[in-house]
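Repro case for the chain-ordering regression, as requested:
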Amino acid sequence: MKRYFAGIDAGSTYIKVALLDQGKQLAGSDVGYTGIDAAGTARRLISGLCGQVGIDPADVAGIIATGYSRRNMDAAHDTVTEIQAHARGAAWSAPDGVQIRTVVDIGGQDSKVIVLDDSGNVANFIMNDKCAAGTGRFLESLARALEISIEELGPVSLESSQPATINSTCVVFAESEVISLVARNKRREDIAAGIHASLAARIGGMSRHAGITPEILLTGGGGLNCGIARALEDEMQADIHLPRYPQLNGAIGAALIALERDGD
Amino acid sequence: MKISRLRWAILAISFVVLMFGSYAGLRLGNALPTFSCCYVNTRGGTCFMLALQQTIGAFTLESMLVFMETLLLFSVLVIIIGKAWCGWVCPLGFIQDLLFTLRSRLGGGYVRFTESVKRKIAWIKWAFLTIALVIPVWVAFPLFCPGVALNLYIPFCQMCPGKYLLPLCAGNPDRISVNYEANTTVFMSVLGLTFSAVTFIGATVKRRFWCIFCPLGLIMSWFRRISFLKLKKEDVKCTRCEICYNVCPLDIEDVYKSRGKRDVTFADCNLCLKCVENCPEEGALKATFLGKPVYVSSQRKFFDKHISSCGGGCSSCGEGKKEEKHDDQQAG
Amino acid sequence: MINKQDNDAGQRKRERFLRAVAGQAANELDSLGDSGGGNISLEYFYGVLEQVYVSNELLTVWGPDMARKPVIGLYCIMAPEELIYAAGAIPVRLCAGCFDAAKTGEDYLPRDSCPLVKSSMGLTVNSGLKVFDMCDVVIIPTTCDSKRKLGEELSAFKEVWMLEVPHIKDTEHSRRTWLEQIWALKNRLEGFVTPDGRKCRRITTAALGSAIDDSLRAQREIRRLLDLRKADMPPISGRQATAVVNSYAYAPVAEWTSALACLNDSLEKQAVSGKPKPRIYMAGSPPVFPNLKIPELVEEMGGIVVSDESCAGDRYLYDPVGSAERNLDDQITALASRYMAPCVCPSFAPNQDRLYVMKRNLQDYAVEGVVYHVLKGCIIYDFEVARVEKMLKEMGIPMIRVETDYHPEDVEQLRTRVEAFIEMLKIKRKAGAKG
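-- result from build under test --
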């Protein structure tokens, strides 16, 4: 009988779950709003996935939780930090033949840069969880100020050829800058590009601290935004690889760790 | 056995052997790298400075061959234990150590030579060495003032504190006098008496006062790279606590200050090993013979030595603590 | 009438403050107690900290001496305690870790200054904590900027003696100047009389020798404790060891040494089971009771702090006094040497010696990872992060820099970082074992 392993990435806004089989194939995945009852949401998502492949949740061989609310996940057998989870997930998520040495994770409320050694283990990491600069929140607030939806923000920014300069990486001050740029009739595309450039600058600063080593993988909700990838490439002067499931990298990594620990 | 005790013992035995050795028929040669003074009639062997000046003062082929032979023997003796001859054997060193200890028992203070002072007086030992090497040449070939040259036989020995102090310690006060034979000898003996008095007083208030001026020590220091006995340091263990400097009779800073050197046998060092004895860091300093450690700094021994009274019982839980045995109750 | 109201208001303010301070200390002590070690004798040390910060009752610690002798407050580890003991006075070290006091301190000192200094200011200005109030004079060395200016600010509230510490250690000039400072301190102590007539006595060779012996015994016991932590399974956690050493600041040396001897004896017999934990070295600004936030976090997340370089921790009592002869000159020279020469506080520049000490410890304790703790505002330790990182890279030891202050608000964020770091070490160890 096939054995399954699950990973739960319990973020503050979204809970992501991934189900892998023993061959490291993705059997299923889901994303749900965290809500007030994070543990309940996770259980629900896991049940749903197990239903899809026709097994009972109790039969899942290993479940590992990561993310901000990991310790609340009663469905999980153990926890790991997001750093470990994203590092593990990177090799799986990477495009074929690309050896990932740096993972840039842009989440809703935090961002991190993880540098890997050549065995794929964590060599160094820098986290920004103290302010909104460099996180999804930065983009959300500024998209609102620009009156575009967050889904449009990326594609719109790609149409710019001359990004506006937004000096501040702080979301509060950047918002004022955006408003004044709008008032000065700058093109939406350019402002959108400027917003991404500012975010990339913040990430770039963090990365240099940790030591940028190619190849670079962009994960997290930020990985869904093509504008960020482009802006990061300009900032870090290197290729940015996008995984197929950027939001799931943490959950997949956690599931992989469950798989590795199986039998320990 | 504590190293300082061993050292005192060996210094005392050497003193007896060198000052009175002839009573036992001892003839230890005349290439000795130590102040076994030629003016001590009952000596067991002779200081190399005599042979050095005598042979140069004759400057014949025969005397030069004797010089080479003596120098060779001298070199071998120095290579075997380096300047430990100074720290462990020298009778003049012994006397200086005695004077200094006497003062400390009587309760006076003492002085040290800082690096800048040492730099300023460094020329004096070179001056003495020059006198010992160059003036005998003049004695051999008295091209000018032959009358003066005549009286400058073994010129360094005439002004050496050993000439006046050592016979005194061997029971012969006759040398404490001005030599009125000629003007030159008056001058030399007054100089010698002055140096002796200065050394006597100096050694009381400064550890091994004479050694910083000693030309024999200077010659011996040239062998330190190839001597079998060395002082070695392990950088990573040294905390730069300065204790080795505080106990060093020659005021050597470089032992604690140096980084990146394994061999810390410096020119002034007389291998008394007080630094190793007082170093609180396990293995930071050690004396090695042919590369093998023979005495290594020990944390336990440091505390045993410096805590002068035994620890009391462990009062808070009521159990008595084992009384620790110490070799003696005093420091130093 | 108005005075009474003011008095009452002042009294309430004091009580509130002391409650806050006591609360933080009590929580920390509870947490320490919970961290295990029930069968080793830590009660004395926790007891001292409890008396000082929670019950605020010093007589239990010092006995009737406290009422008879002058009490000298100290900062850092530059002033020789032996002189103070020999002069018949009581030394207490006042470097403090109270968050609430730090908040008060911000009213007087820049917000960006070091929290240790703000905390000490707060505890001095808000009278109430006896260990601070009872100091008749406070000796402050001119080590770092914050300490130096603290001295000036405190002098409005207490008698302050500044001790000028040369910042460049290695010259003849600095040795001479420092020795002069120590002699001057000795003379000043001898002549010190408190307003209510308690006085210090003349410092004799015998008295100083006895005080030095007491220190040496304490130093010998501390080395025993440190050696025990070199074991594969250390019998005591880093946090407990830090609490033990922190308590030295407030306890009489002979009693403290006896208690430590008992502790060491019990630790030697202690059998420790379980899997070896990642061995961590704590570098950087000192964690001082009750702010043991970082060692606590490290050990909570599964590591064990086997060694540190904190001046309130492993470095406090490490270097011994070695006088050549038993006379006053030599003793004072030895004290001057001991307190300056081996000190590797980054307030000295150059400070290359620190790397040697660190290297020795990293080797001796088989350290797997370094947590470099920088207190906000502690710029001197921050300056040295780069060189330490470089050395660690050459040695193949991972490092994480953690910047924080006394605020408990950032514990969660720190927790994730520290946990990730410890995970990293565990994986590295596993990989090393296989490879």
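Ordering looks correct now. Residues 95-242 of chain A form a domain with the Nucleotidyltransferase; domain 5 fold (CATH 3.30.420.40).
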